[in-house]
C-alpha cells in the first residue's frame, strides 16, 4: 500500500500480527494495564454519574446477557456492559494514560474487548491480542490527530471510539478490510468536547462510555457487512480535515511491528488528571529535599505545557471531587498538606479542607517553553516555590511516577488494585486477589465467558 | 439572560412555549412533516444497511418494549426503536430538509420523539409540541454552525443529535436548565463526517440513527440528573470552537416565538440528495419548454452553490443506488430519459440504464457566484444545455418543488406516502390510509402508546 493510504497500512498490520509477534514484556505490561483497568472500573461504583448510566442500561438494554457490568455484577448485552464499564473506569481518574497521544487507552479498549470476549467466549490470549491492537491503533491515531485536536476535543472520546473499534475488530478476527470498515464507522461517530470542564459536568465519563460502546458497535456492524469510509482519518472530509490543523499521517504507521506503543503507557499514581502529576511529583520532591512544611510556602508556580493550561485552566473553583482532580492548586494542596493526592485524600480533603483551599489560591500555572516543546513525548514537572521567609526554591522531575521509565512495580500495582477495589467495596479483598491471580495467568485462560469471580 | 449565553435563551424559549403558542398553520405543517417521515421510514425496509441495524438492535437490545420499529413492527426499548427508525427514514432520500440549516430534521427528530412518546404514553399534542421544539432548536443550531461546518460534517448527524435531544427533553417536560443539560450531553456526542461519500458507505444512515438515539439518551440522562456542558455550542471548547469557523451566535435566538422555522422545511419531490433538486427542476422545465428530447442534449452545465460541490463532487462513478442519489449526472439523466427521479426510476434505471450512464458523463457542475451567495437561504437551480444542433439553452428555477413557497399539497403528500409505503410493502395501502387519517387527527390523540395500526 502506498503511504497515501496510511489507514490501510495500519489496518494491514492490525489484521496480521499475532500474540507470538508481541515481545513478552509487552504482553506482561498489557496484563498490568488490564488489572489496573479492572480496579479503576470497580472504584467507579456508586458515583452518581455511573449510577445514572447503570439506570440507563436497565431502562434501554436487556435484563440479561453474556457481559458483566463490573460495578453491579449485572449481566447484559456487550454494548451496555461496555458503556457502563468504560464510564466507571474513568471516574476516579486512576486509569492509565499514554503520553504521546494524550489518550487514556484502558478506559475505552478494555471495556469493549472484555464485553465482546465474554459474549463470544474468546480466550485470554485473544483478549490480550485484541487489547494490544486497540492500544497500538488508538495511540497512533491520537498522535496523528495532534495537539490542535486536543485543545478542543477530549481525545479519549474521539480517538477512543476508533481504539475500541480496532480492538473488537481484532477480537472478531476481521481482516484488514473489515478493520478498515470498523474504523470508518467508528470515526464518523467520534465525539467529545472539553467544554464540560467549566461546569464540572459528567461528560468525561460519557465520553469513555460512548467511545467503548460505539467502537464495539462499529466492529459488530463491520462484521455484518455494514460499511464505513475507508479513509476516515486522512480523507478530504475525514477526521483530520474536520478536527485537526496539525495532523501528521506518518504517525499512523510509525514503527508498526517494531515499536510497541502499548508498553509506553503510564500508570497513574495520583488520583487526578495526569496533567497535574509532573508538578505534583516536583513539589513533593522539593518539600522532601528542603524539609519544607506547607505553611512555609507563600506561593507555587507550576511550569507546564499548553495542554495542561487547556484542560486545567477552566477549573478555577472546583465544586465536585471530580472537578477538583482537574484543579492544579487542589492537587498541589493535597500533596503539600497530606503528602499524597490519592483516592482517600480527595474524598476527605479535596473539597472540605480549608488549608487545601487556601493553598489552591497560592498556585498559578505558567507556560514553559522547554516543557511545552518536550510535550507530549515527555511530561516534565517543574515548580518554583516562594517561601514565607523570602527564599525561591525550585525542583524538577523529568520522568513522573508511573511513566514507563519510572513505572509501578507489580507489588505497587497489586496494592493500588486492592485499594481501588476497597474504595467503594467494588470487590472484596478475596475477590480482588482472585482477579489479580487470574490476570497474571490471563494468557492461559481458555474462555473469558465466566472469568470474573462469581458475584458474592 | 444576556446574549453572551444564547444557548440558554434558546432553552428558555423551548421550555416555555406551548402548542397554543404555535400558529395553526405551523401545527398543520408539522403533521405533514410527520406523515412524510413515517412514509420515508417504511420505505427503508429491506435496505441492507437497515437490516444490519435491525440485527444489531436484536443482538444488543431487549426483545420487547414499548417502542416500535416501523420496518419490522418489532417492539423494543426507545433507544433501539429510535436508532432503527432514524436510519430507515434516511435511506431512500425522500425525507425532508431545511434549506437555511441544511438539516434533515424529520429523520432525527421524529424517531426520537415517537419512540419516547410511545414509552411514556404521551399524547399526540405532546408529540407535536416536542417535534416542533426539535425542529426549532435543530434548525437554529444548524444555521449557527454555518457553512464551514457543513463542508466536512454531515450536519444532520452532528446537529441532529441536539435536535433530537431538544425534542425528547421537551416531551419529558424538562425546564430550561434540564433542556440545557440535555443539549450539553448531546453536543459532546455530536458526530458525522462526509468522508463516506467517496466509498458509497453506509454512514449516512448511521448518522441519523445515532443522532436520534443519542439525542434521546441525552434527554433521558438529563432527566435523571446527569449533567452536560451548558455552553456546549458557544463555549471556548464547545461545538463551534471545534467544528466551525463561521459560527454565528445570533442565529441561535433568531426570531424565537415569532419565526417558526419548522414551517420553512422543504419536502423532497425527487428521491435524491436535495442538492440535485434545483438543477433537476430547471432541466425538467427547460426540456418541457423547448420540447427537447434527451438525445438532442450534448452537454449540461448545472450551476450550483459550493455545498453541492462538497457533497456531490466526491461521487464520480456511483456503484450503489444510494450513491447514485448523490450523482448530479445520474439525477439529470433520469429526469431527461424518464421524466422523473423518483424511487421507481432509481430502482429500475439509476444504475443499469446505459442511456442514463451516458447522460451522466455529459453533466458538469460549475460554481455560480449568485447562486452561492443566495445559498443556503435560497436554493436556486440553473442549467445551461448545449444541444447537438449547436444551440445553447438556459433555464432557471428560483423555488424548487417542495420548498415552502412551492410545497406539496396534502393530496400530493398522501400520494407520496402511499407510494413510499408500497415501495417495499412497508405498510399495506389500508394501513397507510389508516396512518394518514390518524396523522391528520394527531392533536386529538390521547396516547401514542398503541397509535400505529396493529401489525398485520
Average the pLDDT over all residues of chain A and give the rounded result.
96
Instruction: List the secondary-structure elements of chain A in sequence, H or E.
Output: HHHEEHHHHHHHHEHHHHHEHEEHH
User: Which spans of chain A have pLDDT < 50 for at least 5 consecutive residues?
Assistant: none
Q: How does CATH name the architecture of the largest domain in chain A?
A: Orthogonal Bundle
Main sheet properties of chain A: 4 strands, mixed
Strand order of the largest sheet of chain A: 4-3-5-6
Work out the helix count of chain A. 19
Give the number of DSSP strands of chain A. Answer: 6
Interface with most residues: A-B, 65 and 65 residues
Q: Calculate the terminal CA-CA distance of chain A, rounded to whole Å.
A: 52 Å
CATH superfamily caption of the largest domain in chain A: 2-methylcitrate dehydratase PrpD
- Structural class of chain A, by secondary structure, is alpha+beta
User: How would you sum up the global shape of chain A?
Assistant: globular
Return the domain count of chain A. 2
- DSSP strand content of chain A: 5-15%
GO molecular function (chains A, B): lyase activity
Domain MmgE/PrpD N-terminal (chains A, B): 8-250
Family (chains A, B): Belongs to the PrpD family.
Pfam families (chains A, B): MmgE_PrpD_C, MmgE_PrpD_N
Amino acid at each position: 500500500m502506498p503511504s497515501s493510504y496510511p489507514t490501510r497500512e495500519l489496518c494491514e498490520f492490525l489484521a496480521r500480527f499475532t500474540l507470538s509477534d508481541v515481545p513478552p514484556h509487552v504482553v506482561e505490561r498489557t496484563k498490568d494495564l488490564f488489572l489496573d483497568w479492572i480496579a479503576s472500573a470497580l472504584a467507579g461504583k456508586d458515583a452518581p454519574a455511573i449510577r445514572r448510566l447503570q439506570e440507563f442500561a436497565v431502562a434501554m438494554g436487556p435484563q440479561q446477557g453474556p457481559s458483566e457490568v463490573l460495578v453491579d455484577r449485572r449481566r447484559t448485552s456487550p454494548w451496555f456492559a461496555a458503556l457502563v464499564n468504560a464510564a466507571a473506569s474513568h471516574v476516579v481518574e486512576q486509569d492509565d494514560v499514554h503520553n504521546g497521544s494524550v489518550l487514556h487507552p484502558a478506559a475505552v479498549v478494555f471495556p469493549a474487548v472484555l464485553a465482546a470476549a465474554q459474549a463470544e467466549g474468546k480466550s485470554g490470549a485473544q483478549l490480550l491480542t485484541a487489547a494490544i491492537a486497540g492500544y497500538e491503533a488508538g495511540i497512533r491515531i491520537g498522535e496523528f490527530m495532534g495537539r490542535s485536536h486536543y485543545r478542543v476535543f477530549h481525545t479519549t472520546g474521539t480517538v477512543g471510539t476508533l481504539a475500541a473499534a480496532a480492538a473488537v475488530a481484532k477480537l472478531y478476527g476481521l481482516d484488514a478490510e473489515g478493520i478498515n470498515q470498523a474504523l470508518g464507522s467508528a470515526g464518523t461517530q467520534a465525539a467529545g468536547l472539553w467544554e464540560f470542564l467549566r461546569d464540572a459536568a459528567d461528560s468525561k465519563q460519557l465520553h469513555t462510555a460512548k467511545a467503548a460502546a460505539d467502537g464495539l458497535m462499529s466492529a459488530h456492524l463491520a462484521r455484518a457487512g455494514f460499511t464505513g469510509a475507508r479513509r476516515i482519518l486522512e480523507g478530504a472530509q475525514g477526521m483530520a480535515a474536520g478536527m485537526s490543523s496539525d495532523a501528521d499521517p506518518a504517525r499512523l504507521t510509525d514503527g508498526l511491528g517494531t515499536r510497541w506503543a502499548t508498553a509506553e503507557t503510564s500508570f497513574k499514581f495520583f488520583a487526578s488528571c495526569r496533567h497535574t502529576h509532573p508538578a505534583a511529583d516536583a513539589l513533593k520532591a522539593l518539600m522532601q529535599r528542603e524539609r519544607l512544611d506547607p505553611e512555609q510556602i507563600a506561593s507555587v508556580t507550576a511550569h507546564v505545557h499548553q495542554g495542561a493550561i487547556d484542560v486545567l485552566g477552566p477549573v478555577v473553583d472546583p465544586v465536585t471531587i471530580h472537578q477538583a482532580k482537574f484543579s492544579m492548586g487542589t492537587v498541589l494542596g493535597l500533596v503539600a498538606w497530606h503528602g499524597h493526592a490519592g483516592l482517600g485524600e480527595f474524598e476527605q480533603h479535596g473539597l472540605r479542607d480549608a488549608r487545601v483551599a487556601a493553598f489552591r489560591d497560592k498556585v498559578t500555572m505558567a507556560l514553559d517553553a522547554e516543557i511545552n516543546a518536550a510535550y507530549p513525548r515527555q511530561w516534565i514537572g517543574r515548580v518554583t516555590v516562594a517561601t514565607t521567609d523570602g527564599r525561591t526554591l525550585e525542583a524538577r522531575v523529568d520522568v513522573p511516577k508511573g511513566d514507563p521509565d519510572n513505572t509501578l512495580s507489580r507489588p505497587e500495582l497489586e496494592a493500588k488494585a486492592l485499594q481501588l477495589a476497597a474504595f467503594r467495596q467494588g470487590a472484596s479483598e478475596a475477590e480482588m486477589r482472585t482477579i489479580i491471580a487470574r490476570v497474571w495467568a490471563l494468557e492461559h485462560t481458555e474462555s473469558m465467558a465466566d472469568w470474573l469471580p462469581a458475584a458474592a
